[in-house]
Amino acid sequence: MPKGRLEAFSDGVIAILITIMVLELHIPAGTSWHALGHELPVLLTYLLSFVYLGIYWNNHHHLLAAVSRVSGATLWANLHLLFWLSLVPFSTAWMSEHRFPSIPTAVYGIVLLAASIAYLILQTALLRAEGEQSRLRAALGSDVKGKISTLLYCLGIGLAFADRWLGLAVYVTVALIWLVPDRRVERQLTTAPAESSQ
Amino acid sequence: MPKGRLEAFSDGVIAILITIMVLELHIPAGTSWHALGHELPVLLTYLLSFVYLGIYWNNHHHLLAAVSRVSGATLWANLHLLFWLSLVPFSTAWMSEHRFPSIPTAVYGIVLLAASIAYLILQTALLRAEGEQSRLRAALGSDVKGKISTLLYCLGIGLAFADRWLGLAVYVTVALIWLVPDRRVERQLTTAPAESSQ
Amino acid sequence: MPKGRLEAFSDGVIAILITIMVLELHIPAGTSWHALGHELPVLLTYLLSFVYLGIYWNNHHHLLAAVSRVSGATLWANLHLLFWLSLVPFSTAWMSEHRFPSIPTAVYGIVLLAASIAYLILQTALLRAEGEQSRLRAALGSDVKGKISTLLYCLGIGLAFADRWLGLAVYVTVALIWLVPDRRVERQLTTAPAESSQ
Amino acid sequence: MPKGRLEAFSDGVIAILITIMVLELHIPAGTSWHALGHELPVLLTYLLSFVYLGIYWNNHHHLLAAVSRVSGATLWANLHLLFWLSLVPFSTAWMSEHRFPSIPTAVYGIVLLAASIAYLILQTALLRAEGEQSRLRAALGSDVKGKISTLLYCLGIGLAFADRWLGLAVYVTVALIWLVPDRRVERQLTTAPAESSQ
Asked: How much is the pTM?
């Protein structure tokens, strides 16, 4: 199966999710700076979720760029990832409208954790199809970032019950770690030119 | 007519439908696990509809992969399928918000049944254009799964009036049957390489 | 300018418009057939607008298939068409929620009329770029359908003030006239093979 | 990295933003011309934001047409632009629903200003990757329009506090300046044929 439609469908879903959150933004009740400031925590949470979805799109882009074909199993691994990402607007709204209570803040982290596990499953499915000698294998290396993120999400979820701001701080930290796009694949693609051009 | 825009438009519509349902998810009234649990039936129904739309996208992907060109009639057969799929969020919300009464549960099944018939019409329109000797014909075989699904939808709609949980169980069963993507086409594409590469 | 992104963007906007109307569908207040029946006029209007947007997508597909490149002016002619199409969900909702009063029914016709004029402008802009000897010119012929539609929309808008059902009947008639996709371009493309394959 | 998915994702997000604003349009309370007229300021603001997003899509289209590949940094510069554009529906709604008070009108200008700066950053990132001898560099020239726009946005934001209508008039002026698509790139592409065809 060529990978074109998988990319187009994922682009579509992530583009919708990243913009659908704007619909959750309530128009400030008044027309003063103070009324806008009251919505600031919601706006900042929107920014955080925007960055997270941007990171996933970015990494998805790099991941798929390194493979040439996709199997039926990959299609489902990809839909599984999109399912968890589709819960991001819901958990963002629940957390931010109630101004970050413990449980919604933890649930936000659980959705992020589930999405990161779904991404690992997709990556593994692609790796299995591509083989150990593939460009993807070489590009990914030991995937330290992925492993650290999983640990940090668990830490964030736990901390949300102790101090919600600490939990949020951990989520922001993971986002900052990933803001640098996955240059490994990019570097690999540059040094080892695409098969078609060999 | 090349098939590119038909695929792109269908990808767009299904991507929107699969994510638009998130907008139907009400934020839990409270911030406790109990408040989240209260929304669980709605979340699970969202998951079911997500899987159904995922199945349609997957099968649509496989179906179109086996054809090379589309006619004007196919465009309308495709829009007809998209129309029924577009009613999935509506019937999902009606059924789940009222906690699965008989009639909305039956209507959910009717929408699924209509979508499956629309899919058959699209498949038939493509088959007629491709011919009896085509790869698509060989790939589809006797289409046992399609026929069984139609029967099961009818069963589910009937059972919804006797016991709504039985009706829902049938819908879940059909989804599980299809979760395995339509490997027939994939196998066919692998054994019989695409015409362009012959 | 290649036409790829113009097609992709138009596909995106029309796909969103055609599905966004589902969000306007109110879940029936009760769970009886009667409650669903109460929403039937809204559902039927949704069907009509779905068909109209499907017609535009279909004709847009055929129109663009016959051209090879687009100019800056064409991009704006296309955005102008998309602007009027984007008002379809708004006018559909206004007309159907109030159960088809004269003025909203006339406004629905005015939006359809404006969209059809915008389509003519786009068609003219493409024709001017392609030239009188082009495949597009040959494919479009005298465009009787387009001219009749414009007249019928005016008739429908007028009739909406006399009898709203007559006005609606005219809108349905225009949709039926166009349901047959624009075979002229298709036929032309079949008889006169694409330049690239000559 | 090929630029295909960057274009597809941006097309998706801008297509959604441009249509999502329709959801903000409230159906008029009554069914008279007067009730529709009451919504006219909202409709006209929708038109203004539609034109702005159309301009960005148009210029984005021209900008990307002149480059051949994108880097990881460009992906983020693009997401940064999309973030500010995604706030356009929110600020449009806040400004128009309250009928253009000073602060929301200024905030609308601030969002437009931030988007224009984000566009400049994206342009600069692409220019750096393409080099001083590139077609893009030649096509952009001294970018007088971009510099004037930035000044006018600042003027508009200031004027919004003195007289909101003057502020709005400045925003409309900037839109009119840009309504003419960026022909520089188009001309350049025509005179200097694409590398692939050389």
From this structure: 0.88
